[in-house]
C-alpha cells in the first residue's frame, strides 16, 4: 500500500473530509462526491477497495457455511434504532454470525 493510499484510508476511517462538497464523480459522472468519500468507496464504476472487501466477506461467509455455522451477508442490524426515525442508524453487518459462543450473535 502506498503512502497516498494509506493517508486516504486513514482520513476515510477518521471521517476527515476527502473531497469538496458537491464535486461530480470523475469516474461515473452520475453522482456527486460527498466530502467524506462514501460515493468514492461505493461507486460501481470504480474497482478496488470495495471489490476486495466484498471478496473477503464472501470467502469468509462461505467458510463459515461450509463449517456448519449459520451466517448471513449484509444482514440488517435492527437492535440499535433511532426512536425518532424508527430505523437502524447502522449500516448492515457485513457478516452476521448466529449462535456464536454461548448462543450470542456476532456482528
Descriptive overview:
- It is a single chain.
- The strands form three sheets. A two-stranded antiparallel sheet has the order 1-2. The chain has a two-stranded antiparallel sheet with strand order 3-6. Strands 4-5 form a two-stranded antiparallel sheet.
- The chain is α+β, with helices and mostly antiparallel strands and 107 residues long.
- It starts with a helix and ends in a 10-residue tail after the last strand.
- The chain has helices at residues 3-13, 38-42, 49-66; strands at residues 23-24, 32-33, 71-75, 81-82, 87-88, 93-97.
- It has three helices and six strands.
- The model has no long low-confidence stretch (mean pLDDT 75).
Amino acid at each position: 500500500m502506498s503512502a497516498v493510499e494509506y493517508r486516504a484510508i486513514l482520513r476515510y476511517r477518521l471521517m476527515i473530509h476527502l473531497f469538496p462538497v458537491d464535486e461530480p464523480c470523475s469516474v461515473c459522472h452520475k453522482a456527486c462526491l460527498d466530502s467524506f468519500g462514501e460515493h468514492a468507496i461505493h461507486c460501481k464504476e470504480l474497482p478496488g477497495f470495495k471489490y476486495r472487501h466484498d471478496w473477503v466477506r464472501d470467502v469468509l461467509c462461505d467458510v463459515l457455511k461450509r463449517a456448519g455455522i449459520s451466517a448471513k451477508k449484509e444482514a440488517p442490524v435492527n437492535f440499535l434504532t433511532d426512536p425518532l426515525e424508527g430505523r437502524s442508524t447502522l449500516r448492515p453487518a457485513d457478516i452476521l454470525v448466529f449462535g456464536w459462543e454461548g448462543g450470542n450473535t456476532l456482528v
